[in-house]
Write a structure and sequence with these properties.
Elements: H1 17-68, E1 75-78, E2 81-85, H2 86-89, H3 97-101, E3 105-106, E4 126-127, E5 138-139, E6 146-147, E7 187-190, H4 191-194, E8 198-199, E9 206-207, E10 238-242, E11 289-290, H5 301-304, E12 308-309, E13 322-323, E14 328-332, E15 337-340, H6 346-353
Parallel strand pairs: 7-11, 12-13
Antiparallel strand pairs: 1-2, 3-4, 5-6, 7-10, 8-9, 10-14, 14-15
């Protein structure tokens, strides 16, 4: 009788150690080849989002012009809101009207608080009957309520900005970010468009007025209009440019940055006074501004150079624009968005910032 010997079922075919190592090596090589492509696609998407943000902000300016008959100030009373910065005044025109309306509320709790609790309480707020964003204003549209100054505005944030989100949640205080928490931004407004300045007759460079007790309501308001204030042309005048959310003078020391709510009065009962301990001013080291500022705290465009391309957050210059992309993106007064090369002639960059300098620009300055 012939017996058929069945194969040993306990012996199973499988990969040897060497084969496994080869497969792992092949997968690692494929990942290494694909990763740069994925990063390029992600960066292209982020760059497109950043460009769209600038586009929306520029179009919002034109809508504001149509509604109010003029452009908002760098910081001043405007459009029904008491003393507030440029990016606050822009909120109703970027679909953030509820947040703008929410600035009715001040966390006074019966008296001015220079050191409010870490979590705001809407029940202790007082509606003063006017739109007035202050250091103590509460964002009641969020749940739980947060500080208005710590509210994140998606349109004001470029997803490629490596310094974004280095504050805290907006509910807690952070002594390293001057109590401004998470309300950072990735864009700055051109002071030479929205603020007040004059030209030095000897140097032809901008001169910024010094704020005082008698001029603080107008010193940061250029009363700009399209196209009257821009004889150089709306397509030749920068209104917004990219700018890192945080630019530290030394790594780990948060003393410079870009906050969309910077440029307010603390909100004392009665007439506000310049230089109160919790006032903030456009043009200081934490402002969403390029192209100059109050009392020379921001350098003039020609003195501060052009802009910075892909700097490290701890090594960027808060006085100028900065971008994580290969070229800085800027929004023009006509609503268009362009990229400016880091090899650009400084004179051309300066001409793009000045709305009435009389310069003649080449037609191929940007793409």
């Amino acid at each position: 009788m012939i017996r058929v010997r069945h194969p040993d079922r306990s012996s199973r075919s499988g990969f040897t150690l060497i084969e496994l190592l080869v497969v792992i090596a092949i997968i690692a090589v494929l990942i290494g080849l694909l990763l740069p492509a994925v990063q390029k696609v992600r960066e292209a998407a982020n760059r497109a989002k950043c460009e769209n943000n600038l586009k929306q902000m520029a179009l919002a300016l034109n809508t504001c012009q149509d509604s109010q008959g003029r452009l908002p100030p760098m910081s001043a009373s405007f459009g029904g809101a008491y003393f507030a910065p440029l990016l606050f005044h822009l909120l109703p025109y970027i679909e953030q009207n509820n947040l703008w309306q929410g600035a009715h509320f001040l966390d006074y709790n019966g008296s001015v608080q220079y050191n409010p609790p870490s979590k705001p309480s809407p029940s202790s707020t007082i509606d003063v009957g006017v739109i007035w964003p202050t250091w103590d204003s509460v964002n009641t549209s969020s749940n739980p309520s947060t500080w208005l100054r710590g509210t994140l505005i998606p349109t004001y944030r470029c997803p490629s900005d490596p310094s974004l989100g280095s504050g805290v949640s907006g509910i807690e205080e952070d002594s390293k970010c001057y109590d401004w928490c998470a309300g950072d931004a990735s864009y700055g407004g051109n002071f030479l468009v929205f603020g007040k300045f004059s030209y030095d007759p000897k140097t032809n460079l901008p001169v910024f007025p010094t704020p005082s007790q008698t001029n603080y309501t107008t010193v940061w308001d250029g009363n700009a209009r399209i196209p009257r204030s821009m004889p150089d042309g709306t397509s030749n005048t920068i209104v917004f440019a990219e700018k890192y959310a945080r630019c530290e003078s030394t790594p780990g020391a948060c003393c410079h940055g870009t906050w969309w709510m910077r440029g307010i009065f603390h909100g004392q009962k009665g007439s506000p006074a310049v230089n109160d301990s919790d006032d903030s001013f456009p043009g200081d080291a934490l402002s969403a501004v390029i192209g100059g500022g109050s009392n020379g705290s921001l350098a003039t465009p020609t003195k501060a150079g052009l802009f910075q391309v892909q700097p490290k957050p701890g090594q960027c210059d808060y006085r100028v624009g900065s971008t994580p992309h290969a070229a800085i993106q800027v929004a023009m007064a006509d609503g268009s968005v362009h990229s400016a090369s880091p090899t650009m002639d400084p004179a051309i960059w300066y001409a793009l910032l000045t709305p009435n300098g009389g310069e003649v620009l080449p037609g191929d300055w940007g793409n």
